[in-house]
Amino acid sequence: MKQKQIEEEKRMHKAVGILLLAFTSAIAGIVSIFVPGTAGKLAKWTFFGVFAVCIIYLVAKRKVRLKRKENERIGKNVTELFFDWIRSEVSLDIEIEPPESGKSNEKMALDTPPKTTPDDRIKPPKKPQNILPPLLKKEINILLGQDKNQENIYWIPENERNWNFVIVGTAGIGKTQTVKAILSEFKKSKIPYIIFDFRKDFILLNGAQKSDFGRILDLNNISINPLDLDVISPKDQKYQISDIINLVYNLGDLQLGIIRKAIKASYEQKGISEEDNKTWKIEPPTFTDLQINLEKLAEKADSRTKTSIEGIFARLDPIFDYKIFSAKTNLPFKEILEENIVIDLGILPIENLKAIVCEFFLRKLRYYLNSLPESIYPKFYIIIDEAHRLKYEKNSSIGQFFKEARKYGVGILLSTQDPVDFTELVYNNLGGLMSLQLNEPKYAKKISEHLGGDIKWKEIKNDLSSKFSAIVKFTSAPNAIKLKILPYFKRE
């Protein structure tokens, strides 16, 4: 009703305007005839002016009417094309009809019910094809505990500058329970993760190959070939692999050079040349080939070089004996990125062997992620308990992850009792830092620097002696927060 009233008022205003123009024109015409002099000329020009305005108005109105009809015709064609596109893109058990000419979409929706058959009332309609991309974003709200006012404290990775989180604290103060609590929240949010368990802390068996925290990936059934040419040249691979070995085993310069020479010989024996990229598709050597070439170099070496090679074998023998790196890579990365996985490093007897397995596993995972589309949301987490057992230099696998993980949609959670081992690369790429009690003054001082604000190192050393007492700092908040962690064993 209101719309009709407005239209009636518009028509009335137009009519009044036209009458006024006609009246003005008539008066001006009469005056121009009977009144001589300047006044008569002025009236004559007024008459012609008003007459011209009327003519222009009528012409313009006609053009607008024609344009409106053309737009209505085009609008009808566009509508028909739109419904044709819908029919071609979406497979439904109903027929979509374009609106009839002069009939609004709203009226069509009310007047024309979808055509159905008896079967359609029983069977659900077919799902439309993927016109829009699936929703990738997952809400991650990790309940950590409560502050002194009994307010819940959450870690929300998406709110932070980075998605990485570090937990530090003296042994026995509650770090592992805190990590377990966070993993339980990940599971509630359906966020897949992989945890590298150095001490079997997460192997609480409920079945043959499953713990409370995910499926156990049996190291006896997997193999990793570090010498795969992962979109890089044999020369690059030679230097990167030898650097990782050196990072874990702290080799001397002569030993490092010998390993590089043995890696190059291993590629060449397979017919792979550093200079000819056409050969890079040939199946690469494994660490078994590396072992054989080290032995060959020892046979021909002088006494000094032979002693160095013997030192290499003294360190690398566990690698060769366990043969994890002596076959083609068979890691099921697609499944890993969709599940909760526990890597049981506790079955390996030597700490350096655990570390090198972790290094090469993460390296292969990084190359696999690099082949996938980038993500603006966190969709997968890497968790490393006892994180001080790894190195965090820029050339380490975990160091590379800290620089690049965000673009892969990957976050990192580290837990350690030795925060001094972390480089600034780690601290500069955190979204959250949580400290439980640290008895060592040098550790407490290190963490107080990164918590910032009014947090003094003595507070970390003395005021957090109660189990599960902690301080957390987020990049999204100006100040650190003191809280009581809700441990895993108290959660539902």
From TrEMBL:
Domain Helicase HerA central: 165-364
InterPro entries reported for this sequence: HerA-like, HerA_central, P-loop_NTPase
Entry keyword Ribonucleoprotein: no
Keyword S-adenosyl-L-methionine: no
Alphabetic keyword roster: Membrane, Transmembrane, Transmembrane helix
This protein's name: Helicase HerA central domain-containing protein
Pfam families to which the protein is assigned, alphabetical: DUF87
Region listing for Disordered, in residue ranges: 97-128
TM spans (from-to): 12-36, 42-60
